[in-house]
């Protein structure tokens, strides 16, 4: 895990109503709200982070909930499916749960020899619950209704839809250390050996697919994981050397980040493990209180009034 890209760090998507988003991810899916903060660039909007107990990279799905935002459209140049890993034998539990909560889902299907359920979140974001064929020993967050034998363990994969897979594949293999594992029709599965989980990216090539529109219910960006800032900056050099525009290092309070648009059109981020989500509140209290970066702390009382109540 030295100088490598260690799979997915987090995925960020866009939602509409914040409370509806909170209810779905915590109550229905049984994820932990690990951080309640604001969009640093738009502090009147929440930035909600869901994941496992500690907010471990590889388990974190984050949202900007913009009330009333129009619905996006899935298409090319987008991350179009977010795959979670669930335990063997848990899919019946999830089907029953989705029935009970009126969640839209598809009957179980299979790809690359792995069974999965497709499910839409309340904004239409496409998720998959996949029973991985490789071991997933990660400990999940548990709730009263979603216990470990069924609980989501973190990410399994992310799917990117593209008109031409090769330029994106070149970034994955040439820079990020992934290799092509399997191909089925127009779906190419890439994996990195640097980590055991959250280490798969699927590229789906559809030449004629119209570009998607990023709005409600779509993925904003995919963040890949590195151990620390030194390694982060090594990747900055590598990306810049390809002639791609990449941002300076940005302090996101819980990690340090770089952003660049990969040639297939998806916004990629590279993010560090340090300092992590326990930097401003105890692990037992993660997600309980509104956390603000220093530059927005002076707006706290106004924000606490204007941001919608989640619980
Ligand atoms: Zn991000």
UniProtKB/TrEMBL annotation:
Top-level taxon of the source organism: Bacteria
Keyword match Isomerase: no
UniProt-listed Gene3D superfamilies: 2,3-Dihydroxybiphenyl 1,2-Dioxygenase, domain 1
The keyword Oxidoreductase appears for this protein: yes
A GO molecular-function descriptor: dioxygenase activity
Name of the protein in question: Ring-cleaving dioxygenase
Keywords annotated in UniProt: Dioxygenase, Oxidoreductase
VOC domain ranges (all copies): 7-132, 154-273
């Amino acid at each position: 895990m030295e100088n490598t890209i260690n799979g997915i760090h987090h995925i960020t998507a866009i939602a509409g109503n914040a409370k509806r988003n909170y209810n779905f991810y915590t109550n229905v899916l049984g994820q932990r709200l690990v951080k309640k903060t604001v969009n640093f660039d738009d502090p009147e909007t929440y930035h909600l982070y869901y994941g496992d107990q500690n907010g471990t990279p590889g388990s974190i799905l984050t949202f900007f909930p913009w009330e009333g935002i129009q619905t996006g459209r899935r298409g090319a140049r987008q991350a179009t499916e977010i795959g979670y890993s669930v335990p063997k034998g848990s899919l019946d539990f999830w089907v029953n749960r989705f029935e009970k909560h009126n969640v839209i889902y598809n009957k179980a299907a299979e790809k690359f020899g792995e069974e999965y359920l497709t499910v839409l979140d309340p904004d239409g974001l496409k998720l998959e619950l996949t029973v991985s064929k490789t071991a997933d020993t990660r400990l999940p967050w548990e709730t009263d209704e979603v216990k470990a034998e069924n609980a989501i363990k973190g990410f399994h994969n992310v799917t990117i839809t593209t008109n031409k897979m090769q330029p994106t594949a070149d970034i994955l293999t040439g820079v990020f250390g992934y290799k092509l594992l399997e191909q089925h029709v127009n779906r190419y599965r890439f994996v990195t050996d640097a980590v055991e989980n959250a280490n798969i990216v699927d590229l789906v090539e559809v030449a004629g697919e119209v570009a998607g529109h990023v709005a409600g219910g779509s993925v904003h960006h995919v963040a890949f994981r590195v151990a620390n800032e030194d390694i982060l900056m090594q990747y900055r050099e590598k990306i810049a050397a390809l002639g791609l525009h990449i941002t300076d290092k940005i302090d996101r309070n819980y990690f340090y980040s770089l952003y660049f648009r990969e040639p297939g059109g998806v916004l990629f981020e590279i993010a560090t493990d340090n300092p992590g989500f326990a930097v401003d509140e105890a692990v037992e209290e993660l997600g309980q209180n509104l956390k603000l970066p220093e530059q927005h702390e002076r707006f706290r009382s106004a924000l606490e009034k204007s941001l919608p109540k989640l619980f």
